[in-house]
Known about the structure:
This protein is α/β, with parallel strands linked by helices and 264 residues long. The protein has helices at residues 53-65, 86-101, 119-132, 142-151, 161-170, 186-201, 224-228, 230-239, 252-263, and strands at 41-44, 48-51, 108-113, 137-141, 173-177, 205-210, 240-245.
Amino acid sequence: xxxxxxxxxxxxxxxxxxxxxxxxxxxxxxxxxxxxxxxxxxxxxxxxxxxxxxxxxxxxxxxxxxxxxxxxxxxxxxxxxxxxxxxxxxxxxxxxxxxxxxxxxxxxxxxxxxxxxxxxxxxxxxxxxxxxxxxxxxxxxxxxxxxxxxxxxxxxxxxxxxxxxxxxxxxxxxxxxxxxxxxxxxxxxxxxxxxxxxxxxxxxxxxxxxxxxxxxxxxxxxxxxxxxxxxxxxxxxxxxxxxxxxxxxxxxxxxxxxxxxxxx
Length: 264
């Protein structure tokens, strides 16, 4: 008969304690990161110290904030873009591959289509994906950019044209939303030409969106060339792949959904 000393004992697996999550949202001392204690450095057993994930996440958060994406577009991601047509699906695939392959890309993108088909959604989603990968990006609605340049001529604004344009010209990837929306005066076209030609010569990638098509469907319809000029449209053919999008204006569904809520 075996004695107590010779009895075998089964070993029970003990689950590892849950690892604390990095806290990168708040700078409040009461919410200091549980991993690094607010030092920014994480001590790894038998390996030494390394930069804590909270510092990396805070850096990415700050970098995205500097991209100037409007608050309204905070929810725009590739994961929640829902193509409704074959052209929208093709545009989604172009946006996804561009985000994954950059900087190994030859050209930027010109997302072209009528209002409400998701052009800005895809452009912002690309920018977010690239920012998460560490690239410097910048978003501007074209009319807003023109207004900031005009305001720089006012001595009371304490800004300069150079101060406004330098990040636009130098950023790794620039999104210019609503190209052609502003009245095409000589000054507007000269400003567009300066931005586009400088980024072209410096081999900087630019993503444009526009509501204006290339082909005229009736005598009264304006096309992109009417809005930006023949020379700049020609330059964009070389700078960007034109991605045409179609479909219904998704914003029209807002009224229908609210009407359904009212009837419920």
